[in-house]
Give the backbone structure.
Amino acid sequence: MARTAEAKPVEEKPRPDREPEFTLYGWNACRAAFDRRPEALKRLYYSIERSRELAPVKKWCGDHQLPYRELDGESLSRAAKSVHHEGVVMVLHEQKIPAAVSLIQRGLKPGEVAVALDGVENTHNLGAILRSSAFFGAMALVLSGAENQADFTPSAARMAEGGFETVPVYRCTDLASVLRDLREKKVFVLGADLKSNQSLYETEVPFPCVVVMGGEREGLSAPVRRRCDAVVHVPGAGPLQSLNVSVAAGVILAELNRRKMRRP
């Protein structure tokens, strides 16, 4: 964010509207959100240490009559409902997550990779997977309709470090049906499950493909597993038997990215 002349603070006033809001915190997450969709910003809170870096955001707020306020650390933690705010909290107009039918209609182009989560419960894991998806260029992330599926929360957004702004996220009620429809469009479905006997490194994976990560406790559900063209595990070399699901997702995405880079 370039330095800009500061506008005068606008005091926050009671707002009668009850439209859905999303509280975002964490420096990278907030910076990415403002850079890509400044019109979503409703209110800004920040620490004195972040004041200079946030000059362009404060100017935007002043120009658009949006409230912004410098707060101490305790007040920022209350605004964020977390101590991990890194000196900035933004209240945004809530961005609705579209249904996966729009992804099915679009399909995947040659060489593209998407990620689907089948009951990943921990919001930190969801955010970390979204971050890896952004880093390795995944074109979409699909959240299943499983009861234990983590939703996209402020803590997930912070863990994604801006990944939500670059990787489209979709919801579905029946992931197995979504995978069936993608397979009909010649998308290879690669499941990841600790119980599999098939190594990732010994499995041929055509593109485009969707990587399906199972839940932390149960792995892939039976209906989803049946829709997979291959189910693999990440082999290790030490005494521990498994990786965290977000780490495993990162390893798989890195391997697929390596293979894509080697293609003629």
